[in-house]
Amino acid sequence: MYLNKALVIGNLTRDPEVKALPSGIQVSTFSVATNRVWKDKNGAKQESVDFHNVVVFGRQAETVGQYLKKGSSVLVEGRMQTRSWDGQDGVKKYRTEIVADRVQFGPRSAGSAGAGAGAGATGGASSAGASGAKGGEDAPIAKEALDTIEYPSEEINPDDIPF
Hints:
By secondary structure, this protein is mainly beta. Helix content is 6%, strand content 40%. Strands 1-3-4-6-5 form a five-stranded mixed barrel.
C-alpha cells in the first residue's frame, strides 16, 4: 500500500499568482510557511521555519486568488509532487510542491473582517465564527462585520428541546 498525502496549516508568504493554462484551466501558486518550536538539550527554546510551495487548479485556484493574500492563514490538503526541467544555464532544476486537493481558509484577521474572506475555497462553512464574540449588546466588535451566530439572551430549558 502506498500513500502520498500532505496536510499543512500555516500562513501565506506571498500573494497567490493566478494564471491560465492553454486549456483555459486556472492555476494558482503560493507559498505557505510553517514553524516548529522545541527545547534543545540545554532547555533553550529553538524555532525553525519551513516553506511549502502549493499549486491549486480549477475553481479553487480562482477563489484562492480572489480571497487570500500574504499573511492569510490557510489549511492545504493534497499530495507531494516533484517536477524537473532544464534551466536556461543547462542545469537540471527541481521543485517539490503540494498539489492541493482542498484549500480551507483560516480565521480572518481583524483588519479584513469586512472583506468577505471567510468562505472556504471548497464551498464549506466559514471558519471565522470561532472568534469568541457571542453577539450580545456589549460585544466589542460590530455584529454586521462578523459571520457569527446570535445566541438568545435567556436561559434555554432542556425540557423545551423537541428531541
